[in-house]
Amino acid sequence: MTIADLLDPAAVTLRVSAPGKRQVLGVVADVAARVLGVDADAVLEGLLEREAAGSTGVGHGVAIPHARVLGVDRVRAIFVRLETPVAFGSVDDKPVDLVVALLAPTDASVQHLRALARVSRLMRQPELREQLRKARSADAVNVLLTHEATSSAA
């Protein structure tokens, strides 16, 4: 499973302004509704429920919120880059500006966990995080994520 299997180019959103975690998750839910045709309220509810169990802020300015959502046909990813980092309760207490959300079918288990592991490994790469922050377009971000290389594709 690669990020290219999970990420639709239309699910990459840059220059997002949001005052807090809930609003960031709201943006993810809105993108999911637009791109995946799922109910935005159901997505937001699932993401908030997961956050209540513990923050998905994994450190280095990255969050990987995830939820199982009715109407999602397979594990899907949504990428959001924030203009201004927001507090997310991350493990390193640093604010988040890169969000890779994962939405899975309600009956997904192994696929969901594999996708989480894959995205987590990918986002641990300092060079990639820096390139994602500097990328000027959604297309450039999509290339960086789907080619899963830290070359100068941006």
Please characterize this protein's 3D structure.
There is one protein chain. The protein is α/β, with parallel strands linked by helices. The protein has one domain: Mannitol-specific EII, Chain A. It has six helices and six strands, in the order αβααβββββααα. The protein has helices at residues 3-6, 21-36, 40-53, 110-123, 126-134, 138-147; strands at residues 7-16, 57-59, 62-63, 66-68, 76-86, 96-104. Strands 1, 2, 3, 4, 5 and 6 form a six-stranded mixed beta sheet that branches. Strand 2 and strand 3 form a beta hairpin. Helix 2 packs across helix 3. The longest helix is centred in the N-terminal third of the chain and has 16 residues, at 21-36. The radius of gyration is 14 Å and the shape is globular. The two termini are 23 Å apart.
Please give the structural blueprint:
Elements: H1 3-6, E1 7-16, H2 21-36, H3 40-53, E2 57-59, E3 62-63, E4 66-68, E5 76-86, E6 96-104, H4 110-123, H5 126-134, H6 138-147
Parallel strand pairs: 1-5, 3-6, 4-6
Antiparallel strand pairs: 2-3, 5-6
Helix pairs in contact: 2-3
